[in-house]
């Protein structure tokens, strides 16, 4: 069977010009050859397709796939989904890993105490809040976490961002500053839980490595310049920009007491 592709305006060709020819109109040599019917398929133009219908069908199929997957989940799979600790605790080798994990936990805990307190001071909070933010998330993540490589707890970048955001609203010595910091932590936690439930971790792919490296490097410089005040012995303006910090350090260089321990250290470094 021969198939020909023609436009939809040539529908009448099926009954006229593309009909099987008679044997009288053919040459003598071809009269004895068998004839073959021709099937005409109308050509569908691209503008006649419906993209809205295709997208709705795709979304319905995706939703139905999620629903069917949820219906097939058992009680154990639901527990493993919300409590990942139940998944890895079944394959945990107690005799092989317990002693090593205890040593690692004690080492990290000893180092976390001064580190968390310094992060709290960087954020403009009391040191006790650094201890809270350092130890409580670790115990919570041991139950609800699923990654063995992820670091949990306060970091310098987050402390710097909290200080810059809340410092423009209220002074760090005010009690309202602590309340706003707790409220900010609650809001960020709710937002991260929503992003985790919606599986929005793929959004980080749109942030290039150069942007992350530049942000990390600039934050390290800002943090180092903001902590110079403890080394030089005088106050430095609180800012998230490098230029104002450098200007503040240079303008107060005459306040350095070179007879003190910090002043002698400054001379040694210079």
TrEMBL record:
A GO cellular component annotation in the UniProt record: membrane
Membrane-topology annotation of the record: Multi-pass membrane protein
Cleavable signal peptide: none
Domain SLC26A/SulP transporter as annotated: residue spans: 98-259
Major location category of this protein: membrane
Entry's Gene Ontology molecular function annotations: secondary active sulfate transmembrane transporter activity
One Pfam family, short name: Sulfate_transp
Annotated PANTHER family: SULFATE TRANSPORTER
Protein's name in the database: SLC26A/SulP transporter domain-containing protein
